Amino acid sequence: xxxxxxxxxxxxxxxxxxxxxxxxxxxxxxxxxxxxxxxxxxxxxxxxxxxxxxxxxxxxxxxxxxxxxxxxxxxxxxxxxxxxxxxxxxxxxxxxxxxxxxxxxxxxxxxxxxxxxxxxxxxxxxxxxxxxxxxxxxxxxxxxxxxxxxxxxxxxxxxxxxxxxxxxxxxxxxxxxxxxxxxxxxxxxxxxxxxxxxxxxxxxxxxxxxxxxxxxxxxxxxxxxxxxxxxxxxxxxxxxxxxxxxxxxxxxxxxxxxxxxxxxxxxxxxxxxxxxxxxxxxxxxxxxxxxxxxxxxxxxxxxxxxxxxxxxxxxxxxxxxxxxxxxxxxxxxxxxxxxxxxxxxxxxxxxxxxxxxxxxxxxxxxxxxxxxxxxxxxxxxxxxxxxxxxxxxxxxxxxxxxxxxxxxxxxxxxxxxxxxxxxxxxxxxxxxxxxxxxxxxxxxxxxxxxxxxxxxxxxxxxxxxxxxxxxxxxxxxxxxxxxxxxxxxxxxxxxxxxxxxxxxxxxxxxxxxxxxxxxxxxxxxxxxxxxxxxxxxxxxxxxxxxxxxxxxxxxxxxxxxxxxxxxxxxxxxxxxxxxxxxxxxxxxxxxxxxxxxxxxxxxxxxxxxxxxxxxxxxxxxxxxx
Length: 625
What we know:
By secondary structure, this protein is of the alpha+beta class. About 30% of the residues lie in helices and about 25% in strands. It contains 14 helices and 33 strands. The chain is globular. About 55% of the residues are buried.
C-alpha cells in the first residue's frame, strides 16, 4: 500500500489487490475552486508472470455514524429500516447479504449519476471521483465502516459486493470485472479527490463543478425540435393511450401490437391512476397542447379523462387511486387495504387546479375543492399531511415519509388563505427532509425509498410557496431541493455496447435521471418540474437550474418514434425505462412498453418550454440541446 498526502488535507491510499509485485507512483494536480485535486497514478506490474489485479484507491476518516452519498445510488442508510421494498441498505456492523443489509458495499460506476463516492463523519467529509470507464475496465465505487472509521474507495476495475442488486428482493452473487496484468505492463489512472466541510450540502458545488468538467465529453443531440417532440408525444397519448370508453389514459401499451394475436390488447395495462403514472396530469398536458395547436380531438379527449376522474370521488372525498377495467375504481398500489397514496392524490389535484385555469368547469372545481378541503382538514397539528389515507373513512393510515409534499404545491396554487395556511404548515414540516438530504416516500411502488421523484415534489412545493408568499426561505428550500434531485441526474454519457439498442442509436444519458436506488434505470420524470427549474434560475439570477432542465428535455427528445416503425414502435410510443446499467435487464436495452406518463411528461415539458420561450420573447427555445 502506498499513501499520498493530499495537499488540501487528508491522505489517499493506493494498493493493488492481487499477486505482485507492483510499483505505484502518483502526481497531484492544481486545486480547483471546490478544493478538488486530480491525482494521476502510474501503476506497473513488475512480476514475471501474468496476474489479475484490482487497483483500490481509498480515503478514510473518523465516522462513528457516517453519511454516504453515491449520486443517484446511495443516500445515507439508503433504505429506511421500515421500508418494505428490499434494496441495498447500510447498517453499521451488519453483514446480512441475503437481506441486502451490510456495513460494506461495492458497485459498478454506471449505477451512479456521477461516478463519485462521498462520506461525512463528525468533523467533515471526503470525496473520490472518477470516470465510468478506466484503462483497466469499468470503474467501481465502494465504501465501508469499521468501528469508528469510514472508508470510501474507487476500484479499477469494479467489484460488486457483498451481493449484486438486480432490481428484486433476491440478490445475485457478488460480481467482479477482472484485469490480467502482463509482466512490465504500465497503466495510468486518473481520479480526483478532496476534503469536504461538515455540511452535507457541500456536495452541491462539487457536483456542479464536476458536471462542468464533463460537459465537453458528453454531447446530447436531440432527434426532434421541441415543437415536433410535443406533437409526437401528443399523438402517442391520443392514439395509443386514450380510450374513450370510459375516458381513460391507459397506463402502458405494448410496442408490439401482434404479440398476443389480438392487436396487443392483452399486453396493454387496462388501468389508470388518477395521477403519477397516468390520469389528470397528462390529460392536462394534452389539453394545453390541444388548445395551443387547435387540435379539437385532443382537447375533447383530455376533457373526458379529467371529467371521468372528477365524477368518481371516493367516499372519503378525495379521488380514488386507480381505475381498473375489470373492477372499476380502487385503492393505490399498496398492500394496505383501502389505502390511497397522498402523492398520487396530490399530483392529480395540483394538475386539476392548473386545468381550471385553462378550462373553467364547475364539476372540476367542485372535485378540486373536495380534495383540498378534506386533505387540509386531516392535516396534523405539526403540518404533516399523511401518506396513506383510507378511501372510505378518510382515516390517515400512515404518517411516514414525505409523500405529502405534492399537496403543498396543490394547496399553494389553489388560492385562498385557508389553503395557503395549510401549505405553509406542511412546507415547514417537510423542510426537515430537505435539510436532512434524505427525501423519501413519493412513488407508490417503492414504499419509503428515496427517489428522484421526491426531489421533484419538493421543488414543485417550495417554488409554489415562494410564488405565493415571496418569502426567501421557500426559495432557499427550493434551491436545496433542486440540488438534491439533481444528484440523480446523469452528468456523463454511459458507454453502451455497439450492438445493444441504446448503443446502436447512440443514446446519450446526460440529462436523464436515475429513478431511484431501488429502481436503477434512467427515466424522464424530472421533466415534470421543467417550468419550476426555469423559474428557480430566474428568481436566483443563476442560469444553472434552467440549463439542467434544458439538458433533460434535450435528452428525452432522443429515441422518439416520429413514424410507425421507428425504434421498433409506433409514432408517439415512448418508453419508461432506459437500462444504463445491469438492473432489471442487461445494460443497453430499453423497455418496449409505452407509458402514458412518459408521453405526458415530455408533452408537459415541451409545452412549458415553449411557453417560457414565448414569455421571454426568445429567438431560440430555452430547451435547445
